[in-house]
Amino acid sequence: MWYNSIMIWLLKSPLHVVTSKNMMLISYTGRKSGKEYTTPVNYFQATDELGDYFATTSKSGRVWWRNLRGGAPVTVRITGNDLPATAVVFEDKQNIAQGMYEFLSQNPGMTKYFKVELDESGEPNLDEIAANISDTVLIKTRIQ
Q1: C-alpha to C-alpha distance for 97 and 69, rounded to whole angstroms
Q2: What whole-number distance in Å separates Cα of residue 123 and Cα of residue 129?
Q3: Could you tell me the CATH number of the domain that includes residue 101?
Q4: Within 10 Å of residue 130's Cβ, how many Cβ atoms?
Q5: β-pairing, 23-29 with 72-78?
């Protein structure tokens, strides 16, 4: 995808500040090929019972995230810094819905993209999130 090449260049350049607030690079090794791949992804920061993490979502039909199943060592480039990390994929609805809730709570402008309405208090509707995640996976990345 031509867009990825541009984002990789931008996030590796001194101009990364334009977009690195919500975009990062994730570099990983292909399980079958053994080749190194780098993918630009939108991310958000969150905390769970294990501590802080960076999370991203992907459509389940894409293949890049499958290399991370079962946990995988990765390098993330966030705000111009390369950091060793471990990425774990979640394919179950409960974890995906909770992650999407956190993401949409931090980024309410994205609710329309995910077909989710905000309730009267400005929070994303968890039932709508659960109804719209059938083709979504969640990837949590923890810095080592």
Answers
A1: 18
A2: 11
A3: 2.30.110.10
A4: 17
A5: antiparallel
pLDDT tens digits for range 49-100: 889 999 999 999 999 999 999 999 999 999 999 999 999 999 999 999 999 9
Domain residues for the domain of 76 are: 2-143
Largest CA distance in the chain: 49
Segment holding 141, helix H or strand E: strand 136-143
User: What letters, b where the CB count within 10 A reaches 16 and e where it falls short, cover 58-86?
Assistant: bebeeebbebbeeebebebbbeeeeeebe
Q: 5 by DSSP, 3-state: which?
A: helix
DSSP label at 113?
A: T
Pick from 57, 74, 72, 34: which is nearest to 116 by CA?
A: 57
**Which residue(s) pair with 141 in the sheet?**
54, 87
pLDDT per residue as tens digits for the range 110-138: 888 888 999 889 899 888 998 988 899 99
The predicted structure's pLDDT at residue 110? 86
Structure tokens at 107: 């980024």
| Structural domain total, the chain | 1
